[in-house]
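// run 5 | inverse folding | seed 20
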């Protein structure tokens, strides 16, 4: 009887151990499913846009050149100060800015909204200059406004020197701050519309030139859940991308900075979208 009692006890202990191992394996599967992805990007972040909570970070607060992601701040400030239907005469200073992607002619006239689309879709540097001069009268005053807004938003590692993001000393941000600025831009209905537009055609108001714009964000319309965003690319900054990813009716700011190629910034962003789905 004693041996039977011991045998039954050992059997119960054996099955209890098996059950514990089974539960442990399920927990291990959950951990594997939510494993943080390995990225090519030098810095990255995923932020819950409602709460501001960071769900993923890589070199989150490391200073980096953000290239044309600068335009998120520029266009949002300009649209806060001007109506989309206001007219802007292009000054010579805006017409001569490099890398404007389509010609801005001195004396031609645009609506503010078309300059906003021009800055956001093909990433025109001249459009940013024209918007800044329209808003503040001088580039220096507008850049000061950008830096004040960055501090107001809670940015700790952001400093602007120009309105468009072309490389220059002491012009920098970080992945975390970029997510904050993306959230700020997304809160403006007009800017949100510009960032979510794949293409646009319009005519200038004075010279009646027909201009067609195409968005440089290749994930827009090709990856489910990507509802808007902004690209940034220079030799110093690498390939950067800030997107808003929507999943289960929640919005997430997904930022990758310093990727080595267009393909890599897309792939890194997709990895982060999958990561969001694995933890939500």
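// decoded
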């Amino acid at each position: 009887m004693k041996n039977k009692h011991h045998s039954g006890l050992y059997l119960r202990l054996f099955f209890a151990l098996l059950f514990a191992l089974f539960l442990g394996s399920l927990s291990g599967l959950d951990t594997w499913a939510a494993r943080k992805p390995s990225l090519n990007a030098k810095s990255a972040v995923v932020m819950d846009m409602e709460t501001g909570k960071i769900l993923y970070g890589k070199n989150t607060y490391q200073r980096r050149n953000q290239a044309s992601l600068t335009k998120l701040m520029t266009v949002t400030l300009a649209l806060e100060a001007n109506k989309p239907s206001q007219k802007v005469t292009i000054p010579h200073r805006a017409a001569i800015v490099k890398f404007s992607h389509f010609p801005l002619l001195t004396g031609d006239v645009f609506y503010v909204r078309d300059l906003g689309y021009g800055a956001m879709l093909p990433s025109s540097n001249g459009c940013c200059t024209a918007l800044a001069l329209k808003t503040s009268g001088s580039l220096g005053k507008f850049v000061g406004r950008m830096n004040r807004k960055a501090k107001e938003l809670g940015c700790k590692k952001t400093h602007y020197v120009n309105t468009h993001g072309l490389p220059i000393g002491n012009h920098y941000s970080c992945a975390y701050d970029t997510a904050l600025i993306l959230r700020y831009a997304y809160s403006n209905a007009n800017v949100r519309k510009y960032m979510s537009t794949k293409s646009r055609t319009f005519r200038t108001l004075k010279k009646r030139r027909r201009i067609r714009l195409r968005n440089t964000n290749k994930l827009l319309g090709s990856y489910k859940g990507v509802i808007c965003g902004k690209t940034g690319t220079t030799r110093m900054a690498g390939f950067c991308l800030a997107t808003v990813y929507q999943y289960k009716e929640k919005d997430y700011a997904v930022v990758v900075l310093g990727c080595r190629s267009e393909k890599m910034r897309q792939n890194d962003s997709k990895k982060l979208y999958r990561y969001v789905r694995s933890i939500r």
